[in-house]
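Hello K.,

You asked for the raw outputs rather than the summary table, so here they are, unedited. I folded two proteins back to back in the same session to keep the settings identical. This is the first:
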Amino acid sequence: MRILHTSDWHLGKVLKGQSRLPEQRAVMREMTEIARREKPDLVIVAGDLFETSAPSALAEGLLYDTLSALRSTGADVIAIAGNHDNGPAIDALRSWAEAAGIVVRGKIGTAKDHLVTGTTRDGEPWRCAALPFVSQRYAVRATEMFELTAAEADQSYADHVRRLFAALTGGFDNSAVNLVTGHLTVYGSKLGKTEREAHTVASYNIPATIFPPSTHYVALGHIHKRQRIDGPCPIRYSGGPITVDFGEEDAVPGVLLVDVTVSTPAKVRHVPLTSAVKLRTVRGDLDGLKKDRERIVKIDGDALLRVYIKEKPRAGLREEVQELFPNAIEVRIDPVIFDNESGKSTARRAGRSPRELFGDYLTDSGHDDEKVTELFDRLYDEASSEGTAA
């Protein structure tokens, strides 16, 4: 069978006030054309369908249109919620999705509800364990929904997720192609630098060994960097269809196409999405950028730019930079021009996550306490997981 694996669409993304929806529409059309051309039997969307838990009507419409278009290619479609999504709201789409022949899973139900089965165009059976994102707060509740033995209070998030997958994959055998999809952070994965920090810290990491060797392919989402994970079976992150932020500007957006049978190992190839807009960072003083403008425009003419300007702050500087580069959506004073403590602090803060900033604050104030950091993680998790409740 052939699988098209994608994830982390983040529909409705706004970057520095710039809506990404026009770009996302073009990318979704290109993805659908790839599906028409390559004729996958199954499309898996491994979470983070939306950028926020309260997406706009336009973002919702793009999701419905894209899932319907992918289904119209003749492929079965499975889409799960990620940590950016509102799980119950995704589950509310199930009546529409089922009528359209699409499988969506937004929150945890019974184990049976998360084991999806089907047959390829050529009659090859497949089964897929589809687990949407589960926050730490709901990991214990999820195991209860699966009617498993009550978890001990001090067991880790990984222990609970292991139980969930054990229940889903216990019947995996060679009678069908065995698949798993989840929105997870696996030990050994390399972050794409813009994932939500609270959901990628060590307490959210799970070992690759939770996936049994009988699994033919594991389609993961959450980490934006496309990569293979070492484990007992083929495990992949597809990466997203667009570069979400400047921390990912070196990424090549695309989808993965996977060919696999019960008796042959998965063969994976990456298909780039050329409609995705590039993100680029340029640095220099105003005179240098003026001299280099022609070269920058030639190389990065269609890219969205972040400009680090090596000039002292002054009125009108941003406008001068944007006159040079109309597609510069972010203009910053380059921290390297400062040589005092304030400048060093600015450089240290630039581009850092809330958790890193809080850790710096604790260290600087002499209160570097691991328990306080864990409490911050828990509170930040609760604040950023609204709408993902099972």
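The second followed immediately with the same parameters:
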Amino acid sequence: MCGMPSAETTDVSRQEPEPVQPTREDAVAAAGSEFIGGPLGRRALLGRSWWTPVRVIALVMLGMFALGMIQKFPCYDGSWFYGASSQYTHACYSDIPHLYQGRGFADGLVPYFDKLPGDMEYLEYPVLTGVFMEVASWLTPGSGTIQHQEQVYWMVNAGMLMICAVVIAVCVTRTHRRRPWDGLLVALAPAFALTATINWDLFAVALTAAAMLMWSRGRTLAFGVLLGLATAAKLYPVLLLGPLFVLCWRAGKWRAFAVATVGAAVAWLVVNLPVMFLAPDGWSKFYTFSQERGVDFGSFWLIIQQHMDTPLNTDVVNTLATALMVLACLGVAALTLTAPRRPRFAQLAFLVVAAFILTNKVYSPQYVLWLIPLAALARPKWRDFLIWQACEVAYFLGIWLYLAYTTSGDKHQGLPTDGYQVAIAAHLVGTLYLCAVIIRDIWMPDRDVVRRSGEDDPSGGVLDGAEDVFVFGYAAHPPHYGFHDAEQPPPVNWGKDPRGSL
């Protein structure tokens, strides 16, 4: 009939758009692709061959993780076990073998329930991470020398953490449907490979990445449950509820926020309540240790303290760090409610976690793992990502060389205090730089490489394409509809079409 669209036309209009090709929109990605024969062909980009983005990125992650393990091998045969400074000069230190005996796993002690010899008294990790450590100890044979057991314990943990690494890469790859190749940012991140087996952070990062994937698919309860489990493994994931609250406030999605928050609270309580009631002293050790811990490696507080005659009081630092974090969160909230377009969830998640890292009184080198998946979703631009990664690698090398300097006695091998402070400054400046470009993207949406393809918030779940109901300083705007809904009206004029070029 005249005026009625044909079935063929309707089918074409509803076809899924092609994946974004990073080698066409990113000069650094295009240049880097020459090392592997140039940009991928159309069949690979559309997933019409075995080499789908998920499979390619998972294999790349496995390869990079294996390289990270190889980087630790100079310590495998002795440096971990004799306290040698070579574990610092070779930058291959790991907490995992040291804590096998130091936290009672070699002696069969039960975390949180059995008291440890020495000053620590109890395991100073959240409950779900303690379970992860305990399961790895069950898989470690109790025969042979303690050195052999610690070697096997590290290998067992590395295998379990490798699974977490693949989960992270796959989740990031699938979170932005039209940008699967952004997962390569995670898989190829040098700081990821270097820090993956220092500690157990990857477990919490994997749960958080899975939670972000669930939220992007509109599964708010699953998001909440996974986020609660992640918070039971590491404290930082709970920070994501802050930006989610402000975003749901602006979009009027209170029910989704309530479901996510209740799911997170219930999941956290299910894991923590048994230990909380049966072993309250052991359960609380993580929280009391975090509160009582003084200024430590990697923080700007350490730079300040090293220039003072009298060390800063821990209570004073706690108060000041908390105040700075609160101010940063208020700034993110103000940014969310006044921005010309509602920010994307991944952008705010990165900013809040980065604020926590920047204001905290300690920065362990593996904390960068918290930010890498969020950075790939918030600012998938290779140049900015690699600038930040270069700063993190500089810090990774700096802290081990500084420890080598302090433990080498009169030899003074390594990096002196002033050099280490430069390494700390590199980490701080790199993280602040990435925060700055993300904030610029929020204020100037046409600069956002995710939104310029016509999408609103592909990781936003129920927030994607939702209308604003509460905005400070601007009239509430309709969403920018893109390829995800061809029947919706065109976007309002934001001064520049976000689908245009940078």
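Residues 52-463 form one domain.

Happy to rerun anything if the numbers look odd on your end.

Regards,
P.
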